[in-house]
Amino acid sequence: METGSPPPLTLRKSPRQGRAVATVDAIFEATLQVLSSDGLIRLNTTRVARRAGVSVGTLYQYFPNKQVLLFAVLERHLEMLSGAIEKARDQNPRAAKELIAEAVVKAYLQTQVAQAEISPALYRIAMELDARALIEAAVRRSAGAIEAMLSTSADGRFADPGLLAQTLTAALYGTVPPFCHRVLSAADGLEAEKQLTIMFRSYLVAQPRQD
After folding, report:
1. Which of 66, 85, 111, 169 is close enough to 143 for a disulfide, judged by CB 3.0 to 4.6 Å?
2. Of the CATH numbers 1.10.10.60, 3.40.50.300, 1.10.10.10, 3.40.50.720, which one belongs to the domain with range 18-64?
3. Mind listing the pLDDT tens digit for each residue in 164-173?
4. Is the dihedral of CA 26, 27, 30, 36 positive or negative?
């Protein structure tokens, strides 16, 4: 017996007007608050709607079920991560390799630490839902931003900035998520930033450059 494909984890409709955008933003913020205060298991659309100050019917206009809502929250989080690295690229034109390492690590980890209280829940959402496409898109954006920084480095041209960017991005997205099994404190975040920066700097310093 064929069961068919699962329904897509997409918004029922996208907000276009200012009021609708504000409503969706309030729902996102309420979801984060409920995740933080009540946890993933106790989160439901009724609790989120109540916290957001909207009716459940209004919430369902955009998010037809809990899974779509959680998927959208994870998507926004990943967009924040890749967006932070793109911002670091824009703020550090023609930077030296040491500064590139510091800027990339700081951008990524500060975004993670800013949502430290819900990191375990976000990690579980990524595991329980089919979020591979979302994660791959965030990785591609991040790698592209890092490659752009390396390609215009003040230290000269790296032999293969694309490969270096892919390696650094894999280290970020592969090393940091295990921290998300627990809440990452500010002190833990600073120590992780210190250690990852040392790792990234050492890696870039060791790379040959084209003359």
Report:
1. 169
2. 1.10.10.60
3. 999 999 998 8
4. negative
